[in-house]
Amino acid sequence: MRIEDTEVIVKITREVLTLFKVTNELSIENDLTNGIVSTKLEINGKLFNESDRINPNEREGAEIHRLVKRNLYTIFVRELGKEPAPYGIMHGVRPTKILHRWIRSMNGNFTERELIERLKDDYLVSEDKAKLLTEVAVRQIPILQNSTPKTVSIYVGIPFCVTRCLYCSFPSNVLPNEKKIAEFMNVLTKDIAAAESEVERYGFKVQSIYIGGGTPTSIPDTFFDQMLERVCKAFYHEDVVEFTVECGRPDTITLEKITAMREHNVTRVSVNPQSMQQRTLDRIGRRHTPEDIVRAFGDLRTGSDWQINMDLILGLPGESVEDVRYSVKRVLSLKPDDVTVHALALKRGSRLQMNLDDEVNTLSDFNLPSDDTVREMAKITDKLIREAGYEPYYLYRQGYMSGQIENIGYCRNGAIGVYNVQIMDERQTILGIGGAATTKVVDFKHNCLQSSFNAKDLITYIRDIDYYIDKRSALLNKIYNGE
Known about the structure:
globular, 16 strands, Double Stranded RNA Binding Domain, alpha/beta, 483 residues, Transcription Regulator spoIIAA, 3 domains, single chain
């Protein structure tokens, strides 16, 4: 029986062709017979075949998709000499979810080697990446087990930044005038109050609060204090295990904001250099210096005993392996509690990608490091961070990532970011409030996730706030009341 070229089949086929940068004329045909998925590829007049049997313990539809992708990938690597990718055919954003599903199906009776070998066999993941994924997934188990269907997290989106970075695709707005910010704050207050009512209605227990964006600290001090006060009053209680504010850019962190965070029970903050090279900061559109980063970190460290995260990006324009080594060492010298290492992703909507799409510029115009160079950057970064006493605890991937690697968070002992783990595993309901926020509701009865999205556009969010509040309420009612 021929497998039809559904939207999913087309998508996963395109993923493999994009991975190997294949632009040739080709013909692909997939077939399912007696539980065996067969793939035929004709390219440059030559015909190749690959087949594999469906795992009867997995859902048939998912297995068909996996094997179509696996077969095609195998043909390109084994028959056509393409270089294997570190993550094989695993291109989803949240790869550790697969391991947690396997672990639950085994009722916890597993060995790490079993998980590693299955990743290598089912998804053709390299030994190193299979070990990394398994290490992270196992480290997350205690966090994920400490949750019930009524345990939730709160996400508050403040969709403003002082400038837009070259690589950024987040739906954030360059900071408007105070009149527009005040208008947003009035709508946000209404959104917070509505979500607070939902928490009370369903008897939810808030585990963590996360204020992100954008850059929440980009708004003026008075508005920032008001926002924290309203969030804290609505959702904070003594059993909240984590209250995070993304401070992000050091040029937005003031002593007044530090005082406000301390007074409103914030437990986790960030200052995100991305690089400690001034020429790189200038190139990507950051209006601060490495010295500003050190100053902001010092102010945060003396401001309270909260945990501090710092972000770095590998693969930024013009950077070398030695540039990255220098940045990592400078960041580690500050002794943050958490270091998150991202690989540059060429995202739709970013100024970088739009420049590449203008039929004038090319990747070489931006002097982006090669995939091999980015992998070397990641290898050195991992070594330095682990030697400093940090361990990887969460991981996610994106499309079009430099080096085909991952974004990964490392932390010192006792500093695991609870919200980071929960958002990646998608086994906890998260109420989204604010601009571009997403509410994710876990349907434990049907073992699925359903979402409700607030508008990315600021004007639309402000104008249609009642609509977005009603959408969130209807989704919660559907899942928790079964209506």
